[in-house]
Structure formats: C-alpha cells, structure tokens
C-alpha cells in the first residue's frame, strides 16, 4: 500500500490518458440507438415549471486556431453562417415547442466563435430563443468571445441581449506561443474587449488560459498569468492543452517537439495555480478559480458545484438542452448529441427533423457512478452514506470499490469517517482517481488526453 503523504507525480501518472469527465458515461460510449424519436420523447417528459439551461453551438470561426479541439470550421464568407442560422432557428422552434412548460434560467453561447455572428443576427437569435422558450427575465447569458472579432456593433448587440458573463479566450500572451498555435492576440486587444463589455454593464468576466502549449515555459506562463490578473477577471479557467491530433487534424500543425513533457506540464500547472491562488482566487475543482464572492466560489464552498460539457458550473439545472451541430443535451433520461457535420445538421433541421445522431440512456449503475465521479471532480470527496442512500445496492458496490482503491493507494483516496477523500497531493490527478469508478473505460478503444 502507498502512503498518503508520498508524492504522486511520476511521469507515468502525469501522462496517463484518461477522460476529462465532463460527462459520465463519456461521449465515446454514445451510440446511434438514441435518435430524434427518443430525444423528442425525453423532451416531452420535462415537467411543468422545471428550470432548464440551453447551450447554443455556433460551428464557425474566421480563423482556425491550431490548438483547438472543438467542432468548428473556418470561413471567410458569411453565407455559410447565414445558412446555418436559418437551420438553427428551425431547431429552436422545434425543440421549444416540446418544452413550453419549462423555464430557461441560463443560456450559454459557445463554438466555434459566437462572435462571428453579425450584430443583427445576434439580436435575431436571441429573439428566436425567447419566442421558442420561456426565458426568465433574470436568466444568465454567457458568451464565449474571440477578441479579434469584436467591434462596437457586436459590443452593443451582446449588451442588448442581456449578456451577464463574458468569457474571453486568452490561452497565452507570449508572442512565440501565440504564433505556434495560430492565435495572435495582444494584451491591449484583450483589455479593450474586457473594458468594452464592462462599460456596457456586463458584471462578470471569465478568462480561459492554457498550460502545456508549444514553447511555453514556467516563466512565460507566469508572465501570462500576471498580465491576465491585471484584467481583474471574476473567474479564471486554467486548462491543460489536450494534444489529440488523431481527433483534430488542425493540431498536426503543431510540432510535437515544441510541447513540454509531462513533468514540465505539471510544473507549469502547479506554478500557475499558486500564483492565481495567491492573488486571492479560490481554487475550484481541477482547473478553475474564482473570486471569493463569485457564485461559483460560493457554490463550491457549499457543495453545490456541478460539472458539464462547459466545465465547472454553479448552474443547478439537471436538464441542459444543446442546440446546433455536435451539441450535447443532458436530460434526466440520458445524453443526446446532434450530428456533428454542419451540412447534415442543416438538412435535418430544415426538413423539420431532429438532428439527434447518438447518445446513451442512463442505467441505474450509470447514475450512481456519474454522481460519484462528479463529486470527486467537484469536491475531491464523496460520502459513502449518501451514495448508498441515493443508489442502494449499486451505491454499496461503489463503496466497496472505493475501499479497495484506498487500500491499494492512499495517494489516490483515503477514508475519513463516512467520506472518501482525494488527498491534497493527488488532486491534480483527480481525473485518474475518477477513472477508477468508470465501468466503461477498460472496455473502450477511445484515446484520451493526458491526466495533467
């Protein structure tokens, strides 16, 4: 047995390939048995008055960042975007017609780049969502912004639709790193966008940063972090770059000899986390930070933190409906994902059909393991008593597995009363801990990114 106080950061563990656990079961285990008929049936079962969230995927960018692993396509022409929006409006009307009894408390626009939309189309999309769904007047509206797209018209359009949180992709401010990932973006440009949104009343600012990028060093990352802190963000997401060129061909443009090794990545992550925490930000789960008064920080302290395909969230809704190609919906019954290819999505939506291509229905065991994995990812702990209370026999099986993990390696998990806890030194590798409760992983042929 390994003792809890021993270090747990060897190269083997750091480079272990495991899922990110933004869902469970994870996306490689979705199957075509979940189609439009199944998805529409699930939608009809949403209860009257239930609060839900929406994710709207915009699958276009006007530049292709080589590090990106998102489902997106570069275009310099607006005609493909306009054609896509026509299909998206049709999908909104179809889905909204089945969930008229629900209320929307949060909308997240992601991509791709939502900022590729013209101002008038931003406003029109918001209007379509409000026609199709019962959107609360105080709904949180968050948007992923590419600073290179922003102009006065877009500033005003996002303010007009009531945006409450701006999420700015930064990645790294070092020119050499930016050139290596085809994402050139100055600090001044980023600051201008942050200032422009705040001037229009947007109350919350999130910055997305990456470690493990080509040519990145501890020193260069520290400089990026210190520049980012000058923008006084409310939240910071510090992700590890996921190099998956077998999944995203644009990443083949990055020379792998430019990438830091596992130990260097780990050192970057640790140093960056210390700097952000020292600046007064509360660490949230694996890779987020928030000001102490931020709603996410409060939710983390109160045990109300959740995790979905956008990462950590304080959104309490158990139903998240994804709109647009490749988007994933989570309902009480399971996951449903739209077809990935935009042309196929458009053909289906324009024909009045749901674009659902695959998904998975939850079994009782899936629900128990999903709960344990989410609590580990969010709280670094779970209650043995609560998992048994919630899931009965399946919960007891999971507790027995946790006891075996704790006996095998106390750097992964220790028992403290009714709780199983990930020790401090094991928390950067919590994805590897969560993987021990994944019943699908051993049978999977899917490839994943490194644990850190």
Q: List how many beta strands DSSP finds.
A: 19
Q: Helix count, per DSSP?
A: 14
Secondary structure category: alpha/beta
Q: What would the principal axes of the Cα set say about the shape?
A: globular
Q: What helical percentage do the residues reach?
A: 25-40%
Mean pLDDT: 94
* Span of the ends, CA to CA: 23 Å
Largest sheet: 9 strands, mixed
In the predicted model, the low-confidence regions spanning at least 5 consecutive residues are none
- Whole-angstrom Rg: 21 Å
Spatial order of the strands in the main sheet? 9-10-8-7-6-5-4-1-13
Percentage of residues in strands: 15-25%
What labels describe this entry?
alpha/beta, 14 helices, three-stranded antiparallel β-sheet
Give an account of the 3D structure.
This protein has 14 helices and 19 strands. By secondary structure, it is α/β, with parallel strands linked by helices. Helix 3 (79-98) runs parallel beside helix 4 (119-132), helix 4 (119-132) packs parallel to helix 5 (152-160) and helix 8 runs parallel beside helix 9. The longest helix has 25 residues, at 384-408. The mean pLDDT is 94.
Question: In brief, what are we looking at here?
Answer:
By secondary structure, the protein is an alpha/beta fold. The chain has helices spanning 11-14, 36-44, 79-98, 119-132, 152-160, 175-180, 187-199, 218-230, 262-278, 295-301, 342-350, 364-379, 384-408, 430-435; strands at 51-58, 60-61, 73-74, 103-111, 134-145, 165-171, 204-211, 235-240, 281-284, 288-291, 306-308, 311-313, 320-323, 328-330, 334-338, 356-361, 381-383, 414-416, 419-421.
């Amino acid at each position: 047995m390994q003792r809890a106080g021993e270090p747990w950061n060897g190269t083997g563990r750091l480079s272990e390939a495991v899922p990110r656990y933004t869902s469970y079961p994870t996306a490689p285990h979705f199957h075509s048995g979940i189609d439009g008929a199944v998805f529409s049936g699930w939608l009809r079962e949403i209860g009257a008055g239930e609060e839900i969230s929406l994710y709207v995927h915009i699958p276009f960018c006007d530049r292709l960042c080589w590090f990106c692993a998102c489902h997106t396509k570069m275009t310099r022409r607006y005609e493909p975007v306009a054609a896509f929006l026509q299909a998206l409006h049709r999908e909104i009307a179809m889905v909204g017609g089945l969930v008229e009894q629900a209320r929307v408390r949060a909308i997240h626009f992601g991509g791709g780049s939502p900022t590729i939309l013209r101002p008038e189309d931003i406003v029109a999309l918001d209007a379509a969502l409000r026609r199709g769904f019962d959107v609360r007047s105080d709904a949180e509206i968050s948007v992923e912004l590419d600073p290179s797209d922003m102009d006065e018209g877009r500033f005003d359009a996002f303010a007009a639709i009531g945006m409450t949180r701006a999420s700015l992709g930064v990645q790294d401010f070092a020119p050499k790193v930016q050139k290596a990932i085809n994402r050139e973006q100055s600090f001044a440009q980023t600051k201008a966008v942050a200032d422009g949104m705040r001037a229009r009343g947007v109350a919350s600012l999130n910055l997305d940063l990456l470690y493990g990028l080509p040519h990145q060093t501890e020193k260069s990352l520290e400089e990026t972090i210190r520049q980012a802190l000058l923008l006084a963000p409310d939240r910071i997401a510090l992700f590890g770059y996921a190099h998956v060129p077998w999944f995203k061909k644009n990443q083949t443009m990055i020379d792998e000899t430019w990438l830091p090794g596992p130990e260097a990545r780990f050192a970057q992550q640790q140093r960056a986390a210390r700097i952000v925490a020292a600046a007064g930000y509360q660490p949230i789960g694996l890779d987020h930070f928030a000001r102490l008064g931020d709603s996410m920080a409060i939710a983390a302290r109160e045990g109300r933190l959740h995790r979905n395909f956008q990462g950590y969230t304080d959104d309490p809704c158990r139903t998240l409906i994804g709109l647009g190609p490749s988007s994933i919906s989570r309902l009480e019954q399971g996951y449903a994902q739209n077809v990935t290819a935009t042309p196929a999505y458009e053909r289906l939506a324009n024909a009045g059909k749901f674009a659902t291509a695959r998904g998975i229905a939850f079994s009782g065991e899936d629900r128990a393991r999903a709960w344990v994995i989410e609590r580990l990812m969010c709280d670094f702990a779970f209650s043995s008593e609560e998992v048994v209370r919630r899931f009965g026999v399946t919960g007891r099986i999971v507790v027995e597995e946790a006891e075996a993990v704790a006996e095998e390696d106390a750097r992964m998990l220790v028992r403290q009363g009714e709780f199983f806890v990930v020790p401090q030194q094991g928390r950067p590798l919590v994805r590897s801990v969560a993987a021990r409760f994944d019943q699908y992983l051993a049978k999977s042929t899917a490839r994943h990114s490194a644990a850190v």
